[in-house]
Amino acid sequence: MASCDVLIKENLNIPGKMAEDIINRRATRTRWDRYLSKNDLSFIKNLFATSPTDYNKMTPTEMYVFLNRHFKQQVCLVKSANDTSLSLDDYISSKAMEQDIARYGLETTEAQIALINKDVEGMPRKSHKRRLANIIYKIRSGNSRYCEETDWYANMEIDYKFKEPCNNALVLTDRNRQWMVNLRKKLVSNNRFIAVGLSHLMYECGLIPQLKELGYTITPIPLK
User: Fold this and answer.
1) pTM of the model
2) For the chain, what are the domain ranges?
3) What's the rounded Cα separation, in Å, for the pair 206 and 33?
4) For 118-142, how does the pLDDT look when each residue is reduced to its tens digit (9 = 90+)?
């Protein structure tokens, strides 16, 4: 990245336009008693006791995404409350800032939040209840046997499945296509470091196959 002129990320954390800002500005509140048991609601209240985000203004979908990430960090990665280490995404961004490398976001945080909700639009309330109860159970259990996805990623033995079709048009196919419009323009001049989620590199619609189709050579770099 040090030899690049621009860091390209999915989105940028801009003060006033971050997820917590967007959520807290809402007037609509969720009736969590319709989605959570009394015990689970008590767990959520304790979990968000010191959070800057008003969980009452989150949607069930946003709550699930948050809890799933929390589970991976606290149970699978065993990250303590006092651990100030950054996520990989934030770490890459911080290194770019240290080296005065310009940063560019492919989409806004607001657009990402809207996409997360649209992806499961129309999901029955009972489905939301079931998956929220399930992820809260996993967090409470503290059992790492539910960490298959995290373990798979940590091993870095990734099958990119370039011959398989994308299974989510909204989140992957359409999004990747939109990103490529901007990436084609950005890659014409100077060097760019692109940091996006793994799923956006995989399958037929992935950024890697699309870059290859444009004539770019993709060379893996071994990890030390």
Assistant:
1) 0.90
2) 16-85+107-146
3) 40
4) 999 999 999 999 999 999 999 999 9
